Amino acid sequence: MGRVLLFLIILIFVALSFLSEVQSTSFKIVNKCRHTIWPGLLSGATSPPLPTTGFALNSGKSKTIKIPKSWSGRLWARTLCGKGSDGKFSCVTADCGSGKVECAGGGAKPPATLAELTLNGADGLDFYDVSLVDGYNLPMLIVAKGGTRGGCSPTGCLVELNGACPKDLRVVRGNGSRESVACRSACEAFGDPRYCCSEAYSTPDTCGPSVYSQFFKFACPRAYSYAYDDKTSTYTCASANYLIIFCPLPYTSEKLLEVRKDGAPLPLVNKTMMYLSHSGGSSSTGLIQTQSITYVASIAVAYFLFFPLLYP
C-alpha cells in the first residue's frame, strides 16, 4: 500500500510539473546592440514573481526566461551602467533605482523604450505592445512565435532615434559629452497636461497626438506614441513564445518578417526614417543630419501624408 501511495505521489508531482511547463511561455531576449545592455523586468501587482528582475547581456548574446502564463508586466533595457564610488549600481538610461543589477520591483526611469505584455488575458489572448509613451532609449522588436490565434504581428521601434531626437527632448550622456543617449517624451520634458493626457486632457476625446508624439509615430508606426494610441499599437496572440530583440537591424527585420503581409494596418518600419548604420546608441549619423530642418520637414510630411493612416 505504501509503495502504491508513493507511486501516486510521484505521478502527481510529474503531472503537475508537466502542466506547469505547458502553462508557461518564454521570452528570448536578444542583444544585437554593439554594447552591453542590462534588461530589467517588472511584474504587475497581481502577477507571480519572475526568476530574475535584471541582468547583464553582452553584445550578440541572448537569454531565455520562463514566464508564468498569467503574467503581466513590462521589460526594458538599461544602458551605460556601472558601479559608482558608493558601490551602488546605476545606469545613465532606464535606471530602475535598486542600486543593483536586479531591479527587485523597481521600474524604468524615463525615458525608456518599453515592452508591455499581458499573457492569457481576455479570451485567452496575449496582449503586447512596444511603448514610447515614456520616451525612447533603444530600438526594440517583439516577435510572437508559434501563436495559435490572434494576429500575432511583430511590433516595435526599429529605428535609432537618439541622434534624431528634437533638442528639447534630448538626454545627453553628461561629463562634458553632448552625445544624445535617450529621447524624452513631451510629457516628461514639459509636464504639460496636454502632452501627459492628464487633468482636463485625461480622455481620448480631449487628448490627441502632438507634434512630438508624431515624431515617434512617424518613425515607428506600430509603437505607442501617446497614452491613447491603442488602435494602431496593441497586438494579440495566443499560446505564443516571444522573441524580444534590442537594436534589430531595420532592413533585415523588414525583409525577414515581410511586414506588409502580416495583416496589420501599419508597416513595422517607415523606410523614410530608417537608420543606415547598425544601431549601437553611439552614432548620430545617417538619419537626420540637420536637426531643425529635417525634423520640421519630417513632421510636415507625417502630418499631411501619414497622419490620415494613423488616425482615420
Could you tell me the number of beta strands? 13
Supply the helix-strand structural class.
alpha+beta
What value does the Rg take, in angstroms? 21 Å
Give the percentage of residues in beta strands.
25-35%
Number of helices: 6
Any idea what the shape is?
A: globular
Helix content: 10-25%
Mean pLDDT: 82
Characterization of the model:
With 312 residues, the protein is an alpha+beta fold. Strands 2, 4, 5, 6, 7 and 12 form a six-stranded antiparallel sheet that branches. The chain has a five-stranded mixed sheet with strand order 3-1-13-8-9. The protein has a two-stranded antiparallel ribbon with strand order 10-11. It is globular. The longest helix has 21 residues. The protein is built from six helices and 13 strands. A hairpin with a 7-residue loop joins strand 6 and strand 7. The C terminus is likely disordered.
